[in-house]
């Protein structure tokens, strides 16, 4: 059974920050990273200062006396607060994965408190004054540094603050004050002891760039040399195999001799040439080999291109000669144009095929796959809009107006029966009407009184 385990890197030294206090205070030092501190690690310090100051990064009690105690010095500033008091500076110190301690950033924090407005337009009472007096006017009255490990957890203190704010609202009816924190980045200048000067560092960077450029040129030169060698082997094998029918015997022997010459040159005088020389050698070989390769590829794809054009001609011709109802709305003159275009394309194809069939394989082709594809696209572009023309929408037919029949004359007996039925319907509707009339409205006098 195996237990889960992890390996954490620890820093072998203790690191502290040191800076000079104000005129009345002695120099201060704070241990930031203890020996064995996990890396990487970041900590934030809060320092109260009124002007530009320097922070030294130091080893604390190094075991080896040959190690200089001071690592680097950071000049923080200039900065100035709006109220003229000491500035609250948030200093972020980082121990990176390489074991290097740096001051990453310094932020100046300024709090702007808005004056609370009373709902009754009354002055705040003594309780509010006491709360204001509890806030120290000088943040550096004690120590001028605070190191934050983690944010405090909310607990009973939060509840006490809530109760306190409730009591203030009850007594003075004052809205809680709003605080706005203004953050300003403070410039930091670094001085690392024992490091290269800025000019020397720039020279080293330029030298590294030159070496990287040389490595890239060497790599590209090697790729071009390998391309020449690969072309020699590949072309020679194909000349004896699938390219043999697409080159004359004389050209074949000449090209094979040229390939052998270049191969010998690669392993003798051309062993260590420049990139441009290898490019020129490859272009010289391709000037003879590319036409052979083109003839083979055209012969390989010509059959499918011809079949595609024939299918296109057959499809549009059959559609134009069809008696199908979906083509009846197309005018006969338009159909004739499609038939003529198909016949023209077919004639062109027959002539080109006859010319191509008369040529040997090692001759340059006259019927190219690109021309066949272009011819098929032209035919499709001309015929398709005609044969896919939609049918015209039929006009809606309005129905004839309906004739109204005159009422037939009625006999006296039919008129009498209709009158009786009307009377009976009225009598059936009278009871609710009588009931509505008998409802006595409020405040009305009785007529029998």
TrEMBL record:
InterPro entries membership: HSP70_C_sf, HSP70_peptide-bd_sf, Hsp_70_fam
Biased composition range(s): Low complexity: 403-415
Recorded superkingdom: Eukaryota
Keywords: ATP-binding, Nucleotide-binding, Stress response
Chain segments carrying region Disordered: 117-181, 383-449
Record field: compositional bias (Pro residues): 391-402
Biased composition (Polar residues): 416-425
Bias (Basic and acidic residues): 161-178
Signal peptide positions (record): none
One Pfam family matching this protein: HSP70
Protein name: Heat shock 70 kDa protein 14
Species for this entry: Zea mays
GO molecular function: ATP binding; ATP-dependent protein folding chaperone
């Amino acid at each position: 059974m195996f237990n889960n385990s992890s390996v954490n890197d620890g820093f072998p030294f203790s690191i502290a920050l040191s800076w000079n206090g104000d005129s009345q205070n002695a120099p201060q030092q704070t241990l930031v990273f203890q020996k064995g501190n996990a890396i990487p690690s970041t900590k934030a310090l809060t320092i109260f200062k009124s002007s530009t100051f320097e922070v030294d990064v130091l080893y604390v009690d190094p075991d080896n006396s040959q190690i200089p105690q001071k690592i680097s010095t950071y000049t923080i500033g200039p900065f100035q607060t709006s109220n003229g008091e000491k500035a609250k500076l948030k200093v972020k110190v980082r121990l990176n994965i390489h074991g290097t301690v740096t001051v990453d950033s310094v932020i100046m924090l300024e709090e702007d408190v808005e004056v609370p407005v009373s709902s009754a337009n009354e002055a705040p009472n003594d309780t509010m004054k006491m709360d204001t007096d509890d806030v120290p006017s000088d943040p550096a009255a004690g120590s001028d540094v605070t190191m934050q490990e983690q944010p405090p957890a909310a607990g009973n203190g939060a509840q006490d603050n809530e109760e306190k704010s409730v009591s203030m609202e009850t007594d003075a009816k004052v809205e809680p004050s709003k605080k706005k924190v203004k953050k300003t980045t403070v410039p930091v200048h670094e001085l690392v002891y024992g490091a290269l000067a800025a000019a020397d560092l720039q020279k080293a960077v330029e030298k590294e760039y030159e070496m990287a450029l040389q490595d890239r040129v060497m790599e590209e030169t090697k790729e071009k040399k390998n391309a020449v060698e690969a072309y020699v082997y590949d072309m020679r094998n194909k000349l004896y195999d699938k390219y043999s029918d697409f080159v004359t015997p004389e050209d074949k022997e000449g090209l094979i001799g040229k390939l052998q010459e270049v191969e010998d040159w690669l392993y003798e005088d051309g062993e260590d040439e420049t990139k441009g020389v290898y490019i020129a050698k490859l272009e010289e070989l391709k000037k003879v080999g590319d036409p052979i390769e083109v003839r083979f590829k055209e012969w390989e794809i010509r059959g499918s291109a011809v079949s595609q054009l024939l299918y296109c001609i057959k499809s549009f011709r059959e559609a134009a000669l069809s008696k199908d109802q979906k083509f009846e709305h197309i005018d006969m003159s338009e159909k004739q144009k499609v038939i003529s275009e198909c016949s023209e394309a077919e004639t062109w194809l027959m002539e080109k095929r006859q010319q191509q069939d008369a040529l040997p394989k090692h001759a340059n082709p006259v019927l190219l796959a690109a021309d066949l594809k272009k011819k098929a696209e032209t035919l499709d572009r001309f015929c398709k809009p005609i044969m896919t023309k939609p049918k015209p929408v039929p006009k809606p037919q309005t129905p004839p107006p309906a004739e109204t029949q005159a009422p037939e004359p009625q006999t006296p007996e039919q008129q009498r029966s209709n009158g009786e039925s009307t009377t009976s319907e009225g009598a059936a509707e009278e009871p609710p009407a009588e009931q509505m009339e008998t409802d006595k409205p409020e405040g009305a006098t009785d007529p029998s009184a």
